[in-house]
Each structure stands twice: as C-alpha cells, then as structure tokens.
Design a protein that fits this description.
The complex is a heterodimer of chains A (about 270) and B (about 250). Helices cover about 80% and strands about 0% of the residues of chain A. Chain A has about 270 residues and is mainly alpha-helical. Chain A is globular. Chain B has helices spanning about 40-50, 90, 100-115, 130-140, 160-175, 190-195, 225-240, 240-250; strands at about 1-10, 15-25, 30-35, 55-60, 65, 75, 150, 180-185, 195-200, 205-215. In chain B, β7 (about 150), α5 and β8 (about 180-185) form a beta-alpha-beta unit. In chain B, α3 (about 100-115) packs across α4. Classes of the chains: A mainly alpha (about 270), B alpha/beta (about 250). The interface of A and B includes residues 3, 167, 170, 172 and 267 of A.
Chain lengths: ~270, ~250
C-alpha cells in the first residue's frame, strides 16, 4: 500500500548513499572529538584514573570481557529482555491506544487511570513485580513492558485523536465501515505519531532494563554496572555505560530507518533530505 | 430525479442554517447554488451527500430517502482531501469497492486520462500542485461513475487562471457520462459558465430566493453581452448592499 517512487536514475542512488555517509560522519564527529580529548587529558594526568579511567582502559576492559565470552552473554541477555519487553509493551499499548483514541466513550473510562499509572516511577514497580512474578525473567520483562507501554499508548491515542476530520469524512462519503476506516484512514494517518511513540517506548525500555537488572540479576549490562561498583572497577562501569549508549542508539536508528520507509509521503521540512 | 423536500437544518448549538428548501434536479442537469457565506448552501450539499442529517424534511433519489452516503452520489470538496500516503492511482481507487484489480486499474486509467494526469499515476500528493491535486479529486469522484456529482466550492482555493481552465475541463468531462452536477459556489461567473440553472439562496436561515434558467448556448463567453446581463441579474438578486453584507457577516 505504501511505497516510494521508483528511482530510475543510478546517479541519484549514488548521491543518496553519499549523503547518508556524510550524515553518519557528522554525527560521529563530536563523540570522536570528546573521546580523544578525554584520552589526552587523562594521559596528562587531569583525571584520577581510579575515578575516571581513559577511554583506552575502558576499551581494553571491553576486549578482555569479549575474549572471555562474558561480554556477549551480558549483551545477549539484555537485548533479549529489551526486545521481549518492547514487543509485549507495544502490543498492549497499541490495543489500548487504538480503542481510547477511536472511542471517546472508552477514552473517558480508561485514560484517567492509565494517565495516573504513567506517573509512577519505574523503581516503584520493582518490589511489587518481584513479589508477584518472582526474581527471574518474567518480572524483568514485565517491568520493561510497563516502561514501553506509556509512550506508545500516549502517542497512538493522541495521534488517532488528531487525524484530519476531513480525511475521515472522505472515508465516510465512500461508505467505509468502522474497521475499514481504521485500516485505511486512521492507521496510515497515525503512523508518524506511532513511530515517535515506538522510539520513545524503546528509549524507556532501555532505561527500565537497567532498573530491572540492578535490582537483582546475575547477567546483563545492568548487572555489569553493579558488579563494577561492588568490585571497585570504574572501567567496567564505563564499559557498560558505553554499551548502553551504543546499543540504545543502534536500535533507535534501526527503528527510525524502518519507519522512514513508510513515511516518505510526508511533506515535511526534513523530507527534502530523504 | 433528486428531490429536496422542505428541508431544514438546525445545529446542536441552536443555529438554524436552512429553512424549508424545496428543489428538484433532473438527471444530467447542471445546477448551481449561489449565495453569500452563511446562507446554508454548503449545509444543503452535505445533507444531500448524506454527511449531515436534515432536521426536518427529506432528500430523495429515485424516490428513496437519503440518510447516509449513497453509492450513486459522489462529492468533491473545496480542498482535494487526498490521502497523503497513497499515490495518485491509489487515491483515485479509494472509493472503488468490489471490483477486480484489472477493472479497478482500467477505470482508474480512464479516469486519470480524462483529467489529464495519466502520467502522474505513481506520484504522491505532496508532489502535485493545487490544481493537479484537485483534478485527482475529480478523477476520484468520476471513477465511481456517480449519477449525481456534488461540488462544494471545488475551485475556490485555486487562482483565477487555473479556476477557468478547470471549469472548462469539468464541462468536457461532464460530456462523457453526463452526471447531474450540483455545484455550490460564490463565484457568479463560475455558476454562469457551467449551469443550466442558478439557484440563489439568501437570508439567515437560508431560503431559496430566486431561480434562473439560463438559455445561453455553450461554450459561454464571459465577455458576451448576454453573459454580463445574466451576471447583473443574479448580482441584483443576491442584493449585496452594504447593510445586507454586514448583517450576514455579523
């Protein structure tokens, strides 16, 4: 249903790739400069190494963890938790967001409760979830799903509520059923807001996984943080933080790029560069 | 035969938009509803389209009452209202149901050819100019082969040259299937170029004030003396004296 215009000009493809590479390089410039500056200042003795070790020390810790194979286990289990929590939270949020957005009646029933639950801090859920669901994976995934739920729910609901009445009327003029109207007008029109919600949800998923793993786990990047703290190894803490930043950014970019494929119809300021 | 029988409309806030409107429109006729803003002409069109309900009276098509959108009636709005995520072809097909893909594509192709946009079938709405987008909207309405086509100030958002071109174009297209055209406009020249009959609505709530049957041959020239004569008659009927205008806007 959604597709881009066929690009027939080979040169256009080449220049688009070049443009993308340039965008990447521009994004990497500032972190690169900061890392180099940090390394130089560390070597000049500006930062005490037991508090802020240089990036090279963090890198070698990562290398050691990689050699022992432990690194991939930590990354793997954390990615797994975020992925399952994300899918679960998104699925439930999509159902609730769709019905509260479409039906003002159900909105009045459900939204006040959900909005008040939204304001509960992530850590407040932890004891309850451990009590209900035990210390293993279920409680962690449930916590992440809660984090993912709210941004997705909120964006989808308000996205549906702000769909152009005039487009809905076109659907009605062509006698579309409620289901067809949702499928052919509401869903595509809501896609931009939904994507924002998904990205926000994924971001919160990464935050909640730390809360879940700090509270009680023997594996994962969050565990690595606590482990670094208790054994007095700042390089391990920093390595874990680095990995969160890198994987957070990678998963977000993947989601954004996947979404952009469906949003090339948008006539926005930024769409000129896509 | 489209029959509008003592139709009145009062909105929830108490505002009365229409009062006792009676009108009959024959098959293939081109009728314009003109009037100053607020006289209820768009409301009347929306009632005929089945998008609003009349508070009193009824609209019937071939003696069946219209209370929701009818498959034989199609509407073109003031704005193109294209789905921005669909290509031109998909937008034109939007209202086509229960047809095989081959039939759909064939009818879409013919419809796009008639509005002169066959080459733009794969373009997205954001790549079209205002006039082109409105032509796609016309194609979307034509493709369902309606027996009645309602047009709610369809060219008022376009500049004067494109408006004149599209008016001529609409008449060309009308010759293929000769649907009934019921047009709401506040452009008297537009009404005179297109219509067999011009209905003047006036007042608040709106009522039919006067009806003019035009006996001008087509194509009509805006510069002809008879054209100007009709224009003056309709202007007089609208009574655009200053007091009246202020009263309407307040």
């Amino acid at each position: 249903m959604l597709r881009s215009l066929p690009v027939t000009d080979v040169r256009a493809v080449g220049s688009r790739d070049r443009l993308r590479a340039q965008t990447w390089l521009r994004g990497l410039l500032l972190p690169g400069v900061l890392l180099i500056g940090w390394e130089i200042l560390s070597r000049l003795g500006f930062f005490p190494p037991n508090l802020l070790p240089p990036p090279s020390a963090v890198l070698s810790t990562l290398w050691e963890l990689a050699l022992s194979g432990a690194l991939f286990q930590h990354i793997g289990i954390t990615l797994y938790r975020v992925a399952v929590g994300f899918v679960l939270g998104t699925a439930i949020a999509t159902i609730f967001g769709a019905i509260t957005g479409y039906s003002p009646f159900l909105h009045d029933f459900l939204d006040p409760l959900l909005q008040s639950l939204r304001n509960i801090p992530s850590l407040a859920w932890v004891p309850l979830f451990i009590l209900w669901l035990g210390i293993d994976e279920t409680s962690k995934i449930a916590l992440i799903a809660v984090g993912v739920f709210f941004p997705v729910y909120l964006n989808l609901m308000s996205g549906i509520q702000t769909v152009d009445r005039k487009l809905v009327e076109v659907g009605k003029a062509y006698r579309l059923s409620d289901f067809q109207l949702i499928q052919r007008v509401f869903l595509p029109a809501t896609l931009p807001a939904y994507l924002v919600g998904l990205r926000g949800g994924l971001g919160l998923g990464w935050m909640f996984v730390v809360a879940a793993e700090i509270m009680g786990s023997s594996q994962g990047l969050g565990f690595l943080l606590v482990d670094g703290q208790t054994t007095g190894r700042p390089t391990v803490i920093l390595a874990s933080i680095f990995l969160f930043a890198i994987f957070g950014k990678l998963t977000d970019s993947t989601l954004a790029a996947a979404g952009q494929r469906f949003l090339n119809w948008q006539d926005s300021y930024h769409s000129q560069s896509y | 035969m489209l029959r509008i029988d003592r139709v009145g409309k009062q909105f929830h806030n108490g505002f009365i938009a229409l009062d006792e409107v009676n009108l009959e429109v024959g098959q293939g006729e081109i009728v314009s509803l003109v009037g100053t803003s607020g006289c209820g002409k768009s409301t009347l069109l929306r009632i005929i389209a089945g998008l609003d309900r009349a508070t009193v009276g009824q609209v019937t098509l071939h003696k069946t009452r219209i209370s929701s959108p009818h498959p034989e009636i199609d509407i073109i709005f003031q704005e193109p209202r294209l789905m921005p995520w669909l290509t031109v072809r998909e937008n034109v097909q939007f209202g086509l149901a229960n047809l095989s893909k081959i039939d759909k594509n064939q009818r879409t192709q013919i419809s796009l050819q008639r509005v002169g946009l066959a080459e733009f079938a794969e373009a997205l709405p954001r790549q079209l100019s205002g006039g082109m987008a409105q032509r796609v909207a016309i194609a979307r309405a034509l493709v369902t082969q309606p027996s009645i086509l309602l047009l709610d100030e369809p060219f008022s958002a376009l500049d004067a040259f494109i408006r004149m071109k599209l008016q001529a174009h609409l008449l060309d297209i009308w010759h293929y299937d000769r649907p009934t055209l019921l047009l709401v406009t506040h452009d008297i020249e537009e009404a005179l170029v297109l219509s067999d009959r011009v209905i003047v609505l006036r007042g608040n709530p709106g009522r039919i004030h006067q009806e003019f049957t035009l006996d001008l041959p087509r194509p009509r020239k805006r510069t002809d003396a008879s054209f100007q004569h009709w224009k003056e008659k309709i202007l007089n009927s609208l009574d655009l004296s200053l007091d009246q205008k202020i009263a309407i806007e307040v």
